[in-house]
Amino acid sequence: MHLSIGSPPVDIYGSVDTGSDLVWTQCEPCPQSQCFRQEASLFDPKKSSTYNSISCFSFQCVIAGTNCSEGDCIYSLAYGRGLHGSFSSGNIATETLTFGSTSGKPLEMPKIIFGCGHNNSESPNTPSNQTGTIGLGPGSSSLISQMATSIAGKFSYCLPHEGSSTINFGGIVAGAGVASTPLIIRDHYYLTLEAISRTLLPLEYHSNLKLVMSNMIRAQPIEIKIGEPGLSDILCYNISSQPELPEVTIHFKGADVKLSPSNIFQNISDDLMCSAFRGGDANTIYGNIMQMNFLIGYDIEQRT
């Protein structure tokens, strides 16, 4: 996601994450050994007239759910697990964020709480233009919560398989073919799943799903071990065998979502494709692969 930070504005590109809250970007000073490489220059808070550091005793530090160090409000975040994990730590501050708009006139949002990262790592396959993360979770420090009155608690996006798209704040998803399901808001966004199908399933459910799918696909499967604790093997197929792939329907409360094979399988190489379902711990995640090519909308006020 592209936006600008500071005065004068500096472009930043963040990975959108509905599973976390804080907006953060890499900042100066940051030794090369403590920051990942990015195409653009790091944001330098000393060059911005609207940057304000937050003290330990500020209510904004409490809102961000962070810690204190020598009077400064600091954060420390970890994402993912194992070889796919990443982290960021730094100072909590407020700054002006600038967004593009459908009218063509930039929209400025002053005094947004964000993280100025001075010690960061990237996850595998991080785009070279990425500078940080845009947290769109339900927490009080997320961009959605801080913009709530301006966007009426609404945002939507469509993730294409290739290329880029836009994320819209304030608009509703309406029209023919739209299905709605209750949104349960706690530490994350939760949906009620009434029938099987998700990208990350508890091991016992994942084993059953693998069995059903392998019986439906008339080809010899290849079992590939992920090599990470807590994850089961992935169901894979040789593409040259041209297996007939099934469609899967996700049955949420009040809404059915019919997935195409491209939402269920990923091409790993020219001759190998693997299921996007993974078995893990008790947590269940409806991930971005299954959301691709669907217009996904959140209405925080109506909780749908």
From TrEMBL:
UniProt cross-references to InterPro entries, sorted A to Z: Pepsin-like_plant, PEPTIDASE_A1, Peptidase_aspartic_dom_sf, Plant_Aspart_Prot_A1, TAXi_C, TAXi_N
Keywords: Aspartyl protease, Glycoprotein, Hydrolase, Protease
GO process annotations (BP): proteolysis
Keyword Ribosomal protein in record: no
Residue ranges annotated for the Peptidase A1 domain, each copy included: 1-304
GO CC entries: extracellular region
Cross-referenced PROSITE patterns: PEPTIDASE_A1 (PS51767)
One protein family per Pfam: TAXi_C
UniProt entry tagged with the keyword Amino-acid biosynthesis: no
Gene Ontology molecular function: aspartic-type endopeptidase activity
Family the UniProt entry places it in: Belongs to the peptidase A1 family.
The protein's name in its UniProt record: Peptidase A1 domain-containing protein
